[in-house]
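FORM 7B: Structural annotation worksheet

SECTION A. Query
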Amino acid sequence: MSDAPDWEFKDRDIAILSELAEDPQLSSRELTDVLEDEYGIDVSHVTVSESIRRMRNEGVFREAIVPNEEYYIFALFEFKFNTEGFADGWRAAMEHIRDDKHTLFFFLSDGEYQWKTVMMFRDREEVSRWIHDCYSEHGNVIANVRNSAVHNVLKFRTDPEIYEDLGEDA
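SECTION B. Predicted structure
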């Protein structure tokens, strides 16, 4: 919920983001070697470390610890609103969902205005209990919760190539 980062991407920044997406555990010393070997970029590990720190502080990328998908089941929730109770209760409901420990990703969609979340739970019983508790606390705002089980997660990562697009506008 903040402003977009004010950042002018250098080839070095794009390479760093690409390599960290491939292996987030790379040290700045290892990244320095990769930058030289793979991209022909000759910089010190101090410069690499400083670039990462500045991009992090500016909000160019976010860091999150996301558990292995084998530990949790994932669910997609779509929230339809009760317009009668919306004006008085929307903020409390939104903050409840946004700040809930199960919420991995929370967003609005176009078309029919709805909140949507991707949430993580240990089992199906926990999903049902969460829905019951949410209705109990915020039923005056939420007219319907549609939930879909997400199973057989086939991809769960950022491809390094996505960062190449950042250089096209620079």
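SECTION C. Observations
The first strand starts at residue 73 and ends at 81. The radius of gyration is 20 Å.

SECTION D. Sign-off
Analyst initials: ____
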